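Lab meeting prep.
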Amino acid sequence: VENVVDGFFVIDADNVTIKGMTANATLYGTGVTTNGNWGSQSLLLLTGENVTVENLTIMPQAQDESGTTNKTIEFSGKNPTIRNCTIMPNTMNTPNTVDGASVYFNGSSEDMGTITVEGCKLVQSGICFDSVTTADEISITGNTFDGAKASYVIGNNSWDNPVATTMADVAISGNTFQN
């Protein structure tokens, strides 16, 4: 993905699968897009329900000339899945990014249904749940977290107003954490 308007790629449709069809299928941002309003904060913004991303290497958009990042992928619809993907620093861009940014689930206090993160490799990257207060199931299974640079590799926060004070349960199993 090159020269996407404002440095992001939005899919606002339900029942979509974004699937790499070759062994080296890669999505990455080019140039620099200043971290600003929602949408300019991530390379992929996926707002539909039942969206699956699989079999891709995905590298974030640089937010400034020093290569800082925010989010690589942001899911905000119900029943998101990311499977067999590699999330890693962007080595195809000038500047290269300092990390792989995050896989971000934006709950905005809505029911997220079933969230699945399975068989992925997250290089200098993590998973963040923002205001995911309700979900049928959240499963983080069989992933490799390699060289985390943030203070957490799986965490939560809330940008809602009022702030969400409870979060949905997360099942974490069969993952590898390495530095």
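Slide two material, second protein:
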Amino acid sequence: DRGTLTLQIPISILAGLAYLKMRSTISWRAALVAIVILGATPVWFLASTAANAQFRSDAPAVFESGTHRQIIETLESRAGRDDVLLARQSALLWLAPEYPGRHYCSHFFLTIDFDRKMQEIETFFLADPETQAAFLRVHGIRFLFVEPDDRPSRFASVAGLTTMLSTPEGALFEVGRTP
């Protein structure tokens, strides 16, 4: 933390001034203590930086639950490069980085007509099953992830949807392909 490291400098100066106010000379013991204390912080900082700067192959999974990993691995095993995933932005925060295909609406900077697509997603999640089925078909959606707040059980009646995985984090559906 920058504040902690920065605060050490004025505290050290004040402590040195207080010491010199009380004593006119510095003993070898006091000098040794000062060197050890002042030298320990940079050594500790460099050691912790080196330990945390190495590459970790499990880094994406560090902040994900086992359920998140299960959903991601299911998508990785089934999705291809051209398969489109529809999910809310909150789910895409952890789904998008490892999803091998495309997203209907992803990051605002990477999505053409982002605001319109966000509104379409809102409308989709509130629509009736027939409208939802038509939306999925028209836009070529292959996978749908529904979070618990959107009541995944409502999507069981949408024509062409098959539940791939149902977890406490949400439900993953596959849209049936029509010939």
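Talking points for slide two:
DSSP finds six helices and five strands in the chain.
The CA atoms of residues 1 and 45 lie 10 Å apart.
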